[in-house]
Amino acid sequence: MRIVSLTGALGYGFSLSALNRVLEGHVDLIGVDGGSTDPGPHYLGGGKVGFTRESLKRDLEVGIRAALDKKVPFVLGSAGLAGGEPHLEFIRALVDEIAEDHDLDFRLALIHTELDKEYLKARLSDGRIVPFSDQIELTEERIDKSVRIVGQVGIEPFVEALEAGAQVILAGRACDTAIFAALPISKGYPPGLAFHMAKVIECGAMCAYPSGVDVVVAEIFDDHFTLEPGGLERKCTVERVAGHTLYEQSSPIRIVEPHGVADLSESRYEQLTDRSVKVSNSRFIPAESKTIKIEGAELVGFRTICIGGSNEPLFVERLDEIVADTKRFVAEQVQDNVGPDDYTLNVRVYGGAMNGAQFIDLATAEVGIVIDVVGKTQAVADYVLATARGRMMHFDYAGRKSTAGNLACPYSPSDLPLGPVYEFSAYHLVTVDDFSEAYRIEYRTVGG
């Protein structure tokens, strides 16, 4: 079975020549990952996609048309980056537009993964929700405050959709591996090999040298799988394939999935040709219980920032003092209009001497400074930021000879409102009786 991964994430782009090269042979599935929590909770909370409309449409258009031409499924996971309902709907609308543009017709499956809050409260009450760490406490109140919460599904909904004859599958939040492992596992290939293969190819040709967001093709057999990049300028090597197996993993020998673990402790990597690698001996250990990772986001305020810099030695040397004074001054100045709990003020220093760090040569020191305010409203954030920026700009430190501004600001306006700020309200595991609790599949006929 031969499976094509288009790129590291839908919207990154890929080489048409690389894709056409792998399509010269037979293929069984074309897939691509669409999302991640790497960019933080903003996209989940704000319902925004993580790439431009143009880049997403281009990748979808090429991928779907190629799959339909080859009469194989096209599979996308974590649609729109975060996989919530607005993200899935955005991608679905693009797919409808592509179908109309090119007079395409196909059976579409939409895998909805946004979770009902009452369901989650019941699971919380039953003690079936546990955190990944102690940093995020999940309560009923926090569930209610969450803008949305998604469940990261495994292979089950993909297998169900494939068996129902879906030609294009668009999923909400999903495990990256599920996109590529579902079909081979459903056809009887060893799950240990399938999950290991899927883990390596979910970022496209990042498992090759030189690494890049481009096409890679995997072929799975009963006792091994092989990997080869689509572009002739790249090579899969043992070092790169084994190294990418570690990607986003806390263990070098365990890939944790909703219903078990791929055990790589005895995996063997071999250079098959100068451009391809063979992998064998990856095993699968079923879990005692079924779990789904959930991700939620809640609105916590609004952000405004100012970016500046300085290479004045005395300013850099006294930066700790200047920052402390700025925070004190701001608290005093705004107290009649803004309470201490209505904002947070951070000064982030890059390349600097904060907290007692010393430069080898202070005279050549240069710092970048970001004044960062999160307020309960955008107006509060703007007000506090302007007060802090003004204080830092004109703070009269010891030895200062000029009365001009202390900071060089590269942008005008200097104060940049960034809008809503979200934080993760849920980053937990839910124990489920059946994986179908975490998703709903909708089928549609597109075109025709």
Task: Please give the domain count.
Answer: 2
Helical coverage, percent range = 25-40%
Beta-sheet strand percentage? 25-35%
Major sheet: 10 strands, mixed
The total count of helices amounts to 13
> Rg to the nearest angstrom?
25 Å
Total strands: the figure is 21
Describe the structure.
- The mean pLDDT is 95.
- This protein folds into two domains: 2-113 and 153-287, no CATH class; 299-425, Alpha-Beta Plaits, CATH 3.30.70.
- The protein is 31% helix and 31% strand.
- By secondary structure, the chain is of the alpha+beta class.
- The longest helix has 18 residues, at 53-70.
- The strands form four sheets. The chain has a ten-stranded mixed β-sheet with strand order 14-15-10-9-1-2-3-7-4-21, with helices on both faces.
- It has helices at 16-22, 42-46, 53-70, 85-102, 117-125, 140-145, 156-163, 176-186, 191-201, 238-245, 313-317, 319-334, 378-394; strands at 2-5, 29-35, 74-81, 106-112, 129-131, 146-152, 168-171, 208-209, 216-220, 224-229, 235-236, 254-257, 260-263, 268-271, 277-280, 283-286, 290-310, 343-350, 367-375, 415-432, 440-446.
